[in-house]
Specification:
The protein is of the alpha/beta class. The protein contains nine helices and 19 strands. Helix 2 crosses helix 3 and helix 5 runs parallel beside helix 6. The mean pLDDT is 94. Bound molecules: aspartic acid (ASP).
Amino acid sequence: MIFNLFPEKSRQTAVLLIYTGGTIGMKEDPVDGTLKPFDFNGILEEVPELRKFTLRIDSHTFDPLIDSSDVEPSLWQALASLILERYDDYDGFVILHGTDTMAYSASALSFMLENLGKPVIFTGSQLPIGSLRTDGKENLISAVEIATAKDSHGHPMVPEVCICFNSQLFRGNRSVKVNATGFDAFKSPNYPPLATAGISIKYNNSFIHYGYDRRKGLSIHTVLDTRVSVLKLHPGITEQAVRDILLGSGSRAVILETYGSGNAPCRPWFLDIVREASRSKILLNVTQCQSGDVDMDIYATGRTLKDAGVICGHDITTESALGKLFYLMGRHEDNSQVKTLLEKNLKGEISK
Ligand code: ASP
């Protein structure tokens, strides 16, 4: 149900706050001291500053509210459907979400929302909005401002799925959670911030993607194939562990988290398993490093993976690789088609 936070005012520019759960919407229970979600329709009590916006602000609360460790693709499908359903009613959307899996959700939504022409801004906080030193107020207020910002022609400043956190705006499918406790919880290691909030909000226009077609509306892709596993290489990894993940029957694709610029052991048993797996599965090479990209032509150990049919992930994050695979495999039965599209920059997720 959509709840109008300022029923007394009818305003032209409108934003929908979608609350899914996470720390931002919690308050300390005065009785037992634990953090519990509060009724989000009472957000004005916690953030009276929202009244200062000359906007219509509506809210939609998911039921049940979840810690984002419990996020499943069904939440992304519900978010995409809600945005599609209410697309014409709002200038932008702000999604309040736990920080733990926010980068996964923002990545997935960037692929699921086709021809997005309005801002979809994820935010959350490290401290509950009801606590004294909360970072939630600043994050929420900046997110609302960005979600409704227009250029001089009346077009949205950032028609993308983004994460707004700690005064910075990042492309959703480039973001990673890098700090479990600090307010600078997110970074976009391989792509510049799309905006920075100081005294005013400075937009990095040349890095914002404006590639939507105004004549066409939004459409969504909600069929996701989640048969993906992740194998993180490490010294001492056993043959059995590699065999279980690469040849296990439950996956259609495996993200190989490799070393450096896409390198892996060159021991024969390892390469034999990779070759066998790549005959029937999609193997995607993503680096364990935070910045930089995979180039399988630099070292012999990388070249062997390429020769075995492993696809280059370039500078994609694991979070984004997961969403891209779910989306592409949901759309295409044929693995070779998925492999071809994995190499392409679809939503600004790779520098290519
Ligand atoms: N565990 C919480 C969540 O991701 C943490 C947070 O919101 O910051 O839902």
